[in-house]
Amino acid sequence: MIDHLLSASDLDRETATLVLDTAGEMAAVSGREVKKLPTLRGRTVVNLFYEDSTRTRISFEAAAKRLSADVINFAAKGSSVSKGESLKDTALTLQAMGADAVVIRHSASGAAHRLSGWIDGSVVNAGDGTHEHPTQALLDAYTMRSRLGRLEGLRVALVGDVLHSRVARSNVWLLNTLGAEVTLVAPPTLLPVGVENWPVQVSYDLDAVLPKLDVVMMLRVQRERMSASFFPSVREYSRRYGLDVVRMGLLPEHAIVMHPGPMIRGMEISPEVADSARSTIVEQVANGVSVRMAVLYLMLGGIA
Amino acid sequence: MTSSWIVSGTQVGDLFVRDGVFVDSEPADAQRIDATGLIALPGLVDLHTHLREPGREDAETVETGSRAAALGGYTAVCAMANTDPVADTAGVVEQVWRLGKDAGLVDVQPIGAVTVGLAGERLAELGAMATSAADVRVFSDDGHCVHDPVLMRRALEYVKAFDGVIAQHAEEPRLTAGAQMNEGDTSARLGLAGWPAVAEEAIIARDVLLAGHVNSRLHICHVSTAGSVELIRWAKSKGWRVTAEVTPHHLLLTDELVGSYDPVFKVNPPLRTEADVLALREGLRDGTIDIVATDHAPHTVEDKECEWAYARPGMVGLETALSIVVEAMAGTDDIWGRVTDWMSVTPARIAGLSQQGQGLRPGAPANLTLFDPSLTWTPGPSELMSRSHNTPYAGRELSGRVVATFLRGEPTVLDGKAQK
Questions:
Q1: Phi, psi of B91, deg, nearest 5
Q2: pLDDT reading at A304 higher than 50
Q3: CA of residue A235 relative to chain centroid, distance
Q4: Are A48 and A71 within 8 A, CB to CB?
Q5: Whether residue B411 has a cis bond before it, omega within 30° of 0
Q6: A25/chain B closest Cα distance in angstroms
Q7: Which residue of chain A has the CA closest to B263?
Q8: Which residues of B fall within a CB distance of 8 Å from A114?
Q9: B306 contact residues in A (CB cutoff 8 A)
Q10: Tens-digit pLDDT profile for residues B382-399
Q11: For residue A7, what is the nearest residue in chain B, using CA coordinates?
């Protein structure tokens, strides 16, 4: 297993598959009455959150606790960080306190990389700026494999604000590693420069792509994008790139609908679609705990 | 100045120094330097240095920056105006000039701000700075672009009264809002907001047209893209009074280095692509780009040892510039003659420094740099005398090093050691 998980591109096919397989075993634990393994007893996992994310923090906390690790939650707000302490000094403090793994969420791209250079313990990137969110990609891949039985050859579309999406970046690298075919669907303003060099197809036309898909993953559109000329209006965005029931009808029967959350109902995805049987949104949350258990287990206590 | 020197065995023959100038005959009672195998250059002149004083003396002072400059072979540096307070009045430019005199290691020529507080809203008192003791001729809001086209036109016109030049930091601010690195494949992969080449090129295109329109002197700071080189080439073909500089780091390093997220590579304008680097080298070789300037930008450890997005842009460069330029421009015909033009004669001319860049001829001020191309060295905290050590070359072995520098006949560096 790798020392750190900073990017989905850190994972080769063998390692990624090992994580997904291990997550399957962890899911079985979550189904038991006593949802706990003694594997990481005596180990310390720090959740270092510089950016609010209740969902991801709780998921990592549950994962670590189910493996019997000691968990320290460190929120930047109200801490020494708000008094001006640098990330490096915070890292050295955590190091001195014997953190075995640090799970970091940060608004700055590359913060997890920087942290990994300053401490001996493992670093897990729980989302850094507009860079990556590798455990989200792992839980998405796990969810696809659970629902559809495979990843090789799967046709997946990521729809929406690819430019600012760390979820999209991590999914592109991981799904490519695992043999899926990825199509990015977005207005040209929300696609990164140089995307033609990525291992993906690109389309501006959601309706044309939908009939060929096994998975459609809707991405979150942040509110500040709506007033920054990335697209003319919420209504136009919703018409061209939102997923409603009519549009969902273009998907093949077996195809699933995913969203990393939190979602804007009515804009990116209609409530009927989000709550439909095709939607995996709630499953994704549950699978997140299993996948994060697998990552921590393999990193800190598991097999080489 | 009374000391006399005989510098023997350089590639241009023996050099004689008496009373601060080069002379054509051997002075009596002179001290002798055996310069066999060394390259003798006229003292280097940097048109683009950040000395940080006043305001950020924790990063650099006029004295520490002057020492670093001397060790890099410089005998004059032009100090950029983005200090705190900004060098936008006669008082501040005279303060910087006086601090340079007191340090006595290089000529410190202040650059005045174009606009009050670098705010880009109204012209600073350019005439007062020009007629001050500092005798300012170069004006720049470096770090900020003079992006208002009317203000830029007025600035270009106004400085004609005293043969001034506007040195533009070409960056259309609306196109670089939030930008963190060169826009391209690497920025897309790293999730860092991109600084597109067109943001530089759009301003250069506008400004060369303005300079041509009002027949004024425009200097483009730190050109970084292939497209910029093309635009400047076109402007020069029109006969417009446009000059341009490139930094040593833009001649050598590419944006792929940002993959480490190490802010030592964060610089403004950002490191670009291999194609840009090759175009910049070609532009320098064919005369489109006139000079090499360091953009020496010292920052404290605290300002660099942090997340990329929060780090200040810039790298130190005075002490490594000559080694880097020689490495980047290897294979150029008459490299030492070209280096003399790029790093001494032409920057002195652009800056209006009559006591600098005059060559190694009898009668010229004895500003001299001796460079040993056979030495190798590794820049690091113990090697660099700049107060800040934010160099991308830490741990990298460089070829060739300055071993002596003379300012008007007085050694500021001997045997690689600063003399003050």
A1: -60, -45
A2: no
A3: 27
A4: no
A5: no
A6: 32
A7: A114
A8: 261, 306-308
A9: 86-88, 114
A10: 889 999 999 999 999 999
A11: B190
Answer for the pair A130, A76: CB distance below 8 angstroms, yes or no.
no
Q: Do B261 and A194 touch (CB under 8 A)?
A: no
Enter the tokens of residue B31.
């001290």
The Cα of B309 is separated from the nearest Cα of chain A by a number of Å equal to: 6
Give the confidence band of A21 by pLDDT, cuts at 50, 70, 90.
very high
A77 CB-contact burial (10 Å; exposed 0-12 / middle 13-18 / buried 19+): exposed
Q: Which of B290, B295, B303, B372 is catalytic?
A: B295
State how beta strands A44-49 and A70-75 pair: parallel
Note whether B161 and B230 are within 8 A (CB). Answer: no
- Of all residues in chain B, the percent with pLDDT exceeding 90 is 98
> Whole-model pTM?
0.94
Q: What is the largest CA-CA distance in chain A?
A: 56
Distance of alpha carbon A249 from alpha carbon A211, whole angstroms: 9
Closest among B322, B332, B354, B254 to B286, alpha carbons compared: B332
Residues from chain A contacting residue B183 (CB–CB below 8 Å): 193
Among the partner-chain residues B194, B196, B307, the one whose CB lies closest to the CB of A87 is B307
| Rounded distance between C-alpha atoms, residue B112 and residue B94, angstroms | 10
B60, B386 Cβ separation under 8 angstroms: yes
Separation between Cα atoms, residue A199 and residue B363, nearest integer Å = 65
Complex ipTM more than 0.85, yes or no = yes
Q: Encoding tokens for residue A31?
A: 């189904």
Q: Is the pLDDT of residue A81 over 80?
A: no
- d(CA B264, nearest CA chain A) in Å: 12
- DSSP 8-state symbol, A243: B
Instruction: Report which of B90, B88, B87 is spatially closest to residue B128, judged by C-alpha positions.
Output: B90
> Is residue B186 within 8 Å of residue B258, measured between CB atoms?
yes
CB-based burial label for A302 (10 Å; 0-12, 13-18, 19+) = middle
The number of CA neighbours under 13 Å toward the Cβ of B63 is 7
Structural contact between residues A108 and A86, judged by C-beta atoms closer than 8 angstroms:
no
Given phi > 0 = left and psi -120 to 50 = alpha, else beta, which region is B340? Answer: alpha
Q: Within 10 A of A250 (CB to CB), how many other CB atoms are there?
A: 17
pLDDT, residue A303, reads 46
Rounded Cα distance between B418 and B70, Å, is 7
Q: How many interface pairs between A and B have CB atoms less than 8 angstroms apart?
A: 63
Can B295 be counted among the known catalytic residues?
Answer: yes
Question: What are B116's two structure tokens?
Answer: 């009050």
Given CA atoms B98, B100, B102, B106 in this order, what sign does their dihedral have?
negative
* Res. B412: pLDDT tops 70: yes
Nearest residue in A to B258, CA atom = A110
Look up residue B178 and give its two tokens. Answer: 């939030």
Question: Residue with structure tokens 């340079």?
Answer: B100
B259: which 2 tokens?
């993959």
Mean pLDDT of B61-78: 98
Chosen for mutation from A51, A166, A193 (greatest number of chain B CBs closer than 10 Å) is A193
DSSP label of A298: I
pLDDT band at B81 (very low <50, low <70, confident <90, very high): very high
B180 with A114: Cβ contact below 8 A? no
Cα–Cα distance for residue pair A24/B196, rounded to 1 Å: 44
CA distance B234 to chain A (A): 28
Q: List residues in chain A touching B: CB distance below 8 A.
A: 86-88, 106-111, 113-114, 128-132, 166, 169, 192-195, 197-198
